[in-house]
Every structure is written in structure tokens, then in C-alpha cells.
Amino acid sequence: MEQSDGGRALSFCGNKSNAYSVTKGVLNNPCFVDALNLVPHVFLLFITFPILFIGWGSQSSKVQIHHNTWLHFPGHNMRWILTFLLLLVHVCEFSEGIVCNMVMGTNHLHLFMPAFMGFVAATTSVIYYHNIETSNFPKLLLVLFIYWVLAFITKSIKLWKFAEDKDASQYLRLYITALLVILYGLLMAVEINVIRVRKYVFFANPQKVKPPEDLQDLGVRFLQPFVNLLSKATYWWMNPLIVGAHKRPIELKKIGKLPIAMRALTNYLRLKDAYEDQRVSRWRPSPSIWRSMYRAFGRPILLSSTFRYLADLLGFAGPLCISGIVTKRNLIFVPVNYHMSYRELLENSSILAVLLFLALILQRTFLQASYYVTIETGINMRGALLAMIYNKILRLSTSNMSMGEMTLGQINNLVAIETNQLMWFLFLCPNLWAMPVQIVMGIILLRHFMGPSALVGASVIVLLAPVQYLIATKLADTQKITLEHSTDRVKKTTEILKGIKLLKLYAWENIFCDSVEETRGKELTSLRTFAFYTSMSIFMNAAIPIAAVLATFVTYHILNEKGPSPSQAFAALSLFHILVTPLFLLSTVVRFAVKALVTGGSFTWGNNLLTLSDINIRIPTGQLTMIVGQVGCGKSSLLLAMLGEMQAIEGGVYWSNKNRNSVAYAAQKSWLLNATVEENITFGSPFNKQRYKAVIDACSLQPDIDLLPFGDQTEIGERGINLSGGQRQRICVARALYQNTNIVFLDDPFSALDIHLSDHLMQEGILKFLQDDKRTVVLVTHKLQYLIHADWIIAMKDGTVLREGTLKDIQTHDVELYDHWKTLMNRQDQELEKDSQTTLERKTLRRAFYSREAKNQIDDEDEGDRFLFSDDDNFSTTTNRRSKIPWKVCWCYLSSGGFFMVFLMIFSKLLKHSVIVAIDYWLANWTSKISNRQDSYSLLVFIILCAAGITLCLITSLTVEFLGLSAATNLHHNLLNKIIHAPIRYIKQNCNKTRVDICKRVTNYLNWVVRNLADLEVQMAAVKKVNSFLSTESENYEGSMDASQVPENWPQDGEIKIQGLCVRYDPMLKPVLKHVNAYIKPGQKVGICGRTGSGKSSLSLAFFNMVDVFEGKIIIDGIDICKLPLQTLRSRLSIILQDPVLFSGSIRFNLDPEKMCTDDRLWEALEIAQLKNMVKALPGGLDAVVTEGGENFSVGQRQLFCLARAFVRKSSIFIMDEATASIDMATENILQKVVMTAFADRTVVTIAHRVHTILTADLVIVMKRGNIMEYDKPETLLEQEDGMFASFVKADM
């Protein structure tokens, strides 16, 4: 029928006269059957719209749960999937109807209107279902059941009538109708299943359901497992969080808790059960971590793989649709009864464009779903593995660490890197089996479009695949070597930071800096190799598609003597771009697979040695047992052996049943959690206010807590406020006291406490708090005056028990030992002052706060960097201010790699992308030409452009990697030297929070700036921290005198003149020494004493120019020390600090890192320090191993090594800064005699820890608040009965 001038008339069945005829039967009229199909849709819309508008959200306020996520009805996911498929089929039905209508002479609304109404009804059905479900009103689902039944019947009638047509098999409409019948039938079955399970109709007792436990907890805000399928796919439920985060900075509490199924404990138990099941299985005698992970997390990985396969298959719709669209086939008008075939539908460019759009949406949805499931599963698996490792670490013997079999670095590597490798392998797991399918499908389609020439392009890919694998393997090997060097470097750097004060005092910073630089050089060699292989990997991934396209098109031109058609060219180009992804991931996946396989075999632990022998003791229940003995005799080891922290060669430890798992332990070396004071004390036990207050009082912690900015809710530990040793120790003792255990082990809890705190802790904490509860207490101590309180005493010597019993028993049976104790007990182990060091500890807290406030007024911008108790790595601090992309820092980072490299990288990247665009443009231009002459010219230009693109890919990959390497090299070198030469106060406040290792990674993020702006900002925070360090002032190492002007034997005599000396730690702080004047003759033995905070330690640091001498001077042997180069000054003096510092290496290295002394001199020093026999017994002697931090020696032994180290340097001036605080009194007496004899001709300045140690000195200086109060011989000062020194001596006797 021809079209009228006025256009096509609007008609449901068309304008033909017999269009509405039913003479052959009502159901034989196609238009009537289509009209019949409208009835269910109209019914659903008529019924549901009033319900939706009237009852929208009316139930939401009745129950306090997350209503929009409350999934009650069975078959939820199946319903959503079927509805999505229904909508997709309706789109196809509508498209087919529109196209058919367009080629008809008149309008036939019945061809597409039922499809449109079906689409609207399907959309309404899922909205209706969602609201009914969240309102938990299942009876209203009866409407949907009726709808599915009606739709199924009407569509079945239409399918039946289609099937009667002998030519129906050619029609697309037949297959669409069949699909709709199947989908309606399945949805009807889902509805029947809901009725069967929930019994909301046709049953007397409907099923009652409760919401999931997670949703009853309003703290759970991660709702991904509970929302409907559409919200899961689009993450719609996160909109409120995203909008809120955009308006104001996000806080950790806003994120809330994880659901139970996603918590580390849940996943740990799942993995542990899978592992334990293998142990008890007969068929698998050796449990495998791989099998355990598969059994625990295999199901979501299979789901993710399914999503990935669907996404990959949908990805190939792009080339197919592009080929069809570019072909531009024209449609022909057909007779009135036209029915479209599926081939004709797929040749319509408009339809193909719609299908391409839908395919891309579905492809990205499935791909994103695959990524999400694998990432979530990977995180869950890593959490489970970390929990298993932490559980193992907590059960790991301490001797594994002290004997060097397992270092902190190895454990950190296992926790931070190895588990991360497994997680990343899981992330990439779906690619492992999806990539081959993707590559094969791509090659098949290429063969379809390009013929035999496609095989040439495919061969390029296949032939270069082994090269990629080889590069990936080399990358893995190089990374392993690099990691070893990096671990060694980080270990050395950490040791430098921990011992920086000692290194500066001994002028050894350059020696240790050179050691780090040597290791860094090895690391950089590996990093250069790694950067090269990484560049080659990136280059191959970028260049292979270009090379494959070039090879394919050149071959096609040779075989066919012309270029490909536009449809062939752009379809092939699209396919090669698709192949980029698997090619890019191939080497990465293989590399992570190799790493993961290596990682799976690294979860093993070693054995260790024994240091105690012939121990036969019994600890009486409910009594106080004290263990005493000299340094290194095995006191701490005995406690560790009882705790199961040492491996027994013979014998064992036997506990009463009720006590085995009820032990509280306070170690000699204090350890704090990165948590609040309260959390450190309660340590996971239930909070009891009365018990907590009693413990706080027993440990004298309340005055310290009152000084903290947030009281006992202040965060302490490595990332929190810096507490003193005594404060840390009292918190650890408080933790042991608070635990409601039957047994309490206390390892030298008084070592860092003054006498008043020690007495208070002994009386209130141990004798009253613990003994009143009849708890078994084992106390290791050097404070022999407390032996009178012991119910049982164990005396140890050289790893064996020398004597045990009550004090009365020992007095009776070992008179010599008792007399020795009595002599020592007569000198009460007492600090110099009644106000004690505790006063200084509390003043130090105040000073820290005041100094921070002063600095903050100067520089608000660096507030986070300077504030002593801020936590730069803490989430809440990091997100406290809305941050911006630090472009200035980015430029600082890039410029540190060299301006030429930056220019080359930017220029080559811009040029590369321009060439790639030019390749596409020229391909379009070439394929649209017909002339052979033009064709040959176009081919030549195409070859040149491809060659240029490949070359630029190589240049950009090399410049990016080596720019990052150059930046990391320069930043690390500058930072290390800046840290080494920075003032000690600045290092202590900031260095431990600095990270430079991630600098290498930053450039890689620049490739994905748009996608990774947040990650870029996080990475740049490290660079900002580095820049803040680089901007600080270094110490003035030069001095006004040249080193050559200083006599080689200076100081020869040891004469010290102090004239009007004023000292401060910072220009913003008050002076700690005020106009001090003193004269020390050559060879004099001088004792300096005073209350804590009097300035005596500051005076000792002034000798080394470690503090700010802003007025006055110190003259040693005629030279003002402030004029000397620091290296010269510090290398000519000797000092022993209170805290012992040892470095990993050998005993020889710790005594003489400069390698300037003979073995005889080293043995002499060890003999003086009472260590010669012990060292001789060690394997290797002087070359015996010292583990990290000297953990294979006791604290007292470490201090003796430090004494020997000072003796090695034959300086005429020797300073002891409370160096005997960590050793027992008997050893101290020996050392005092040695110092007086071995250094008879040298000047010795002793900062007194115990007053009796300086009674034999030639001169005593008494200080108070930075001033010298008394200055004379000790016997002269003792005659002044009302003097300060006399009062100190009386208190110490």
C-alpha cells in the first residue's frame, strides 16, 4: 500500500480493510493475538501503580534495621536475572517490531506496542517486587503470580499460532516469542517456589523470618552482600556514602563495621577448618595451603571466572557490530506480511548501534562484577592468612628471634609481601584461564575478517609470547634479588635510626652511612635490571598489537594487491585492541603465578638452641618467688623456658592444670600496643573500673595519665605519644597486674624506676594487690633489698641454679652468699633524689607539648609533621582535612629524576599517542581509497607510522622506568645523608615515620592518573615527607677550624674548662644549662650528680656539641670545641650511654666498626668488661654473630659490650652517662674498680646513677635546674651536713 501525501496514518492493525477480520477465527488474526498479549501488561500496571504510590515506604519506620537491604524471599537473584533477560528480549522484540513497521506501507502498532508495554510491565514488576520485599509483605506477590500466569498463557498462544506457519522457522519473531514463553514460565516457577517456602497463601501457618544478624547491627554499613542484584551491579547503595564524603571529610566511624561473613575471624576459621580437614583425612597425609584456599574460597573464584568469560564473550560484540555498521547495507521494501529474519536484523546499522551499546554496558558490568568478587575474595583470603600467621607468631618461640633464625624483617616480609603476592595472584586468577579463550576467539574472528593474512598477525603474537614469558621470569628473579637487598638495606637503615645518638657521639655515622650506600648500590644494580625488564615488558605489551596489525595489513596487501575494506580494517583494529588486555596481563599473571607458587612454600619455622642446663626447681603456688643473679646468668631465660618460649633438649615444664593457660607476663623490655593507655592495660580483658583504678594507683600512673592530652584515652605506642622508659615499663607492669590470672611473671620491673616508685610498686602492687589475691608471683630483680619479702628465692649463676630456698635457709646453708648479699643490700639501690626521675618523665611530657605548641605557631603548614604525638599514617588523621592532588610535590618528585628525563618522558608520551591516533586516521584514509597507486603510497606511510609507534613505545617505557629509578636514587641518597647529619632531636621526632621505598612506584601511577588520583595522592605523601626532611637544617659539621689544624694526639692531657656555658635543646625552648663554670684537671675522676632534670646529662652531651651551645664555651686542652669539626671532636672522646645499643653483625664489628684495632686490644677491652670468657666460649669468638638489636644477649650483657666498646677507644676523656643502670650491683662494683685502674691516667666524668659510685672521685659537681650548686672534693662536701651532696649520700646509705 502506498503512502498518502499526508503521511502514514496511525492504526493498531494497519489500514487494510480486512485487518480486523475474524472470519477465519479470532486466534487466526495476528493483530488480535497481539492485542491479547497486551492484557497481562495492562492488568499489572492497573493493579500495581496504586499499591506503589499508596504504600511507598510505609513500612520503613517500623523496625530499626536496614530495610532497603532486607532480602526475605527465596529465588531473589534468579528473579532479578530472569527479569534482566526479559527486559533484553523485550528490547529485541521492540526493535524487530519497529524495523518491520518501517518497511510496511502503513503503521502497524501491534508489531511493537505489546513489546513496549511488556518492557514497561517487566520494569514495574521488579520495582513492585523490590518494595514488597523490603516491606516484608509477601501476600502482595500474588499479583505478580497472576501476571506471570496470564503472560505465559498469552505468549504461549502466540507461539502456537506462529508454529502453524510452515515458514515460521525463518522468522526472528518466532524465536523471540519462544524465549518470552520460557522466561515467563521460569518466573512463574520462581513465584510458586516463594509460595512453597514462605507459605503466605494457601497454607495455614505462614513462615516467619528474621532479618540477618548483620542488618540488626546498625554499625554494619557495608551492605554489598544484602542489597538487590541491581544495586550490587551498580553499587547504588554507596551513593549516600559518596555524597556525604563529597560534602565533608570522611571519618572511619562513618564506614562502619564489616558484615560477619567478611570479617577476618570468619575467614580465618573457614581456612583453618579446610586445613584441619586435610590433616585428619586418610587420603591426603600432607596438608596443602593451596587445597585449603581452594576449599575455603574456591566457589567465589569460579563465580568470578564465569563473569569474566561472559564479559570476554560480550567484548567481541564490538568488532562484529563495527563491521556491520561500516558495511552500510540498505534495506529493501517488502510486501505487507513482512517478517524479519535474524540475519536482516543484524544487518541494520541502527539496531547494531543499539546492540553495541547494550553489549558494552553488559560487558563492563560483568567485568566489574568479576573484579569485585576476586578482589573481595583476595582480601578475605589475605585476612585469613594473616590471622593464621599472627596466630603462629604468637605461638612462636622467642628464641627463634634471639638466635637469628627468624628476624623481624623476615616476619614483616611474610606478612606484608608474601601474603600480598597470594592476594594479587587471586586477583588475577580469572585471567589465567580467560586469556587463552580470549586470544583464541580473537584469532578466529581475525581469520574470519582478514582471511589467511590474519594468521601472520597471530603468528607475531604467538612467536613473541615466549619472549614475554622469558621477560616475566627474569622480572620475578630480579625482583627476588632486589627484595633481598632491600630487606638488608631497610634493616641497616632501621638500626641506624635506632642507634643514631650513639653513632653521632662516636662519629660513626659516615661508616654506617657508607654501609647502607654499599647495600643500596647492590639494590640499585638489581633495580636497574628490574627497570630494564619492566620497560621491555611494557614495550612488548604496547608494541605487539601494532606489530601484529602491521604484519596483517601488509600481508593482506601482498596477497590481494590492495588494502582491506573499511569494515575489515576497523573490525581487525578493534580485535587487536581487544587482544591488548590479555597480552598486557599475560606476563603479569605468569609473574604473580610464579611468585604465588614460591610464596606457598615459605610458611615454615625453624628450631633453636638452649642456654640453661640442669634446672630442677619448683615454684610454690600462691607465693612470691624471686630470681636473682648476675648479668647473663639466665634469669630471663628461665622465665621464657617456663613460658615455653625456649625449646627443651631434655626435661620439661609441668604445670598444675588450672595454671597452664593463666599466666600474665611483663617482659624486661617494655612493649606497647599502638592503642590507648586503657587498651594497653586491659589488653582485651573486660573493663572493671574498680580493678583498673587499683592497678593505676599501684603503678603510680595517675599523675602521668593526667598529663596526657586525652587522659587514659590517649594513643601511645610506636605511632602515639613518646613515653619515657619508666612510663612504658609501668604500663607494662600494670597490664600484667590487671590480667585476672593465677600466675604473674615480672622480669626486672624495677630497672627503669627510681627507688620511690620501686618501693610503691613493691608494696602496693606486688605485696598487696597480687599477694592478697593469693596469686603465684615470680619476680626477677637486681633489687636485693626486696629479698626480705620473698617466700622463696632462686639464685642463678652461668645458666644453672646456684641455690634455692627461703632467705633464712640460704643464711644458714650458704653463709658466703648471704654475706655477699648483705653487703649489697646495705646500699639501698636508690636513685639520687626523692623527686626522682619520674619528675623528669612527667616534665618531659609537658615540655613535649609546649615545644610542639611553639613550633606550630611558627609553621602551621607542617603541623602534622612536627606534632610529636600526631600519627601521620593514621586513617582519621589522614582524612581529617580535605586534600588536593599535590601537583607541586609531583613536580618535585619528577624533577629529582632529572629535567632531561622529564622532558623526554613527556615529549615521547605525547608523540607516541599522537602517532597512534595518526595510525587510526591514516588507516581510515587508506581503506577509503581505490587507486592502486594511492594504495601503495598509503601502505608505505602506514608502515612508517607503525614503525614510529613501536619505536616510541620503547622510548616511553624506558624513560618512565628509568625516570622513576633516577628519582628514587636521588631522593634516597639525599634523604639518607640528611637524616644522618640532622640534629638528633629532629631525627627522634620524625624519622621512624618516614618511608622512601615507595618512591620507585610513584611514576607507575602517572600512567593511570585519571583512574588513580587518590592512589597518586597517597603515594605522593611519602615524597612530601621526604621533601620536608630535605628542607631541614643539618648539623654544622665543618666548624671554624680545619681538621688539619687539630693535633693528631688531641686531647692529650684531658684538661676541661667550662666557661659561662648556656645550653638549650631548641631555640624555642628554655635553657637547660645556665652560665655553668667548672675546671677539670687532666686525669681527674669527676662525678656529676643531681636530681633528675638538673642538667647533668645535658652537660655530658655538651662535650660532644650535641646540643645548642648559644653562650659560653667548653675548652679541652686549649681548643674551644665549638670551633672544631664535629667528626674530629666526637672521634676523640669516649662515652657510654644508659641504654645499650648493639648492631647486627659480629662482636668485632660492634667493638671496632672502623677496623683500626688489633685482636689483642679487643680481647683486652672484653676482659675489662668481664666478657672475655663468655665470648671465647661462643663459636667464632670475636667473629661470633650478634643478631638484630643484640637480642641473643641479655640486656646486662649488651651494656657490658657497650662498656667494652668505649674502652677500645683510647681517649684521654671518658664519659659515663648512668652507664651502670642495667647491670647488677656486684658487676657494677667490679667495673668501678676497673675504671679507676684502667683509666688512672685519663679524665673520667661519671654521671652518677648511684651516689656511692662517685665517693672515691677526685671532684664532685652537684647540679640543680641547670646550675652548679656544689663543687668540691667529696670528703669536703660530706662535711657540709646540710649540703645537697651530703643529703644524697645519707639517702643512698
Please, what is the oligomeric state? single chain
User: Overall mean pLDDT score?
Assistant: 79
Q: List the strand order in the largest sheet.
A: 2-5-6-1-7-8
Helical coverage, percent range: 55-70%
Shape descriptor reads: elongated
Helix tally equals 46
> How far is the first residue's CA from the last residue's CA?
126 Å
Biggest sheet, open or closed, and with what strands and sense? 6 strands, mixed
Q: Give me the count of strands.
A: 20
- Low-confidence segments, ≥5 residues, pLDDT <50? 1-7, 57-64, 330-336, 601-610, 828-836, 849-883, 999-1011
Structural class: alpha/beta
- Percent of residues in beta strands? 5-15%
Instruction: Please give the radius of gyration in angstroms.
Output: 41 Å
Short description:
By secondary structure, this protein is an alpha/beta fold. It is built from 46 helices and 20 strands. It is 58% helix and 8% strand.
Question: How would you describe the overall organization of this protein?
Answer:
This protein has 1293 residues and is of the alpha/beta class. The chain is 58% helix and 8% strand. It is built from 46 helices and 20 strands. The strands form 5 sheets. The protein has a 6-stranded mixed β-sheet with strand order 2-5-6-1-7-8, with helices on both faces. Helix 16 runs antiparallel to helix 20. The longest helix has 52 residues, at 509-560. The radius of gyration is 41 Å and the shape is elongated. It starts with 29 loop residues before the first helix and ends with a helix. It is found in: Membrane. Belongs to the ABC transporter superfamily. ABCC family. Conjugate transporter (TC 3.A.1.208) subfamily. Residues 310-595 form the ABC transmembrane type-1 domain. InterPro entries: AAA+_ATPase, ABC1_TM_dom, ABC1_TM_sf, ABC_transporter-like_ATP-bd, ABC_transporter-like_CS, ABC_transporter_C-like, ABCC8/9, P-loop_NTPase. Pfam families: ABC_membrane, ABC_tran.
